[in-house]
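Sequence, structure tokens reproduced for absentees:
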Amino acid sequence: MLFDAMEQQTEMAADLMIYRTMFSNYKQRATCKFIGGVAPVGAFTFAKPLAFPGTAGDVKATIAAGLLQLLHRGMASLADKGFMLHAEAAVNGHNLFVPTFAFNGHVCLLSGRSERRVAANA
């Protein structure tokens, strides 16, 4: 399964507390976040009709949406770099792969076992 989050801009709330909850630092505006999953053949396998506030990170929204309960032992999933759920997926014997990313000019290889071996030998 490939999964990702999508943020949709919302109207600006008149109540400051609601606005602060809906504000996404990533998008710099009030948003709602949706989590979805797609099978390799392109069919939607997970679409939660529930929206999460913009302040919810990808990890928090994924756990709250119940997506981790669909990940089975021996399966592998692909996700965006914000989904650092390796430990949570490993509890069920599931492999989660995310793309590599740069941190302070250095490439961090955190996504899979083969990449961790490459990082250990670097």
The chain is about 25% helix and 30% strand. The longest strand covers residues 29-38.
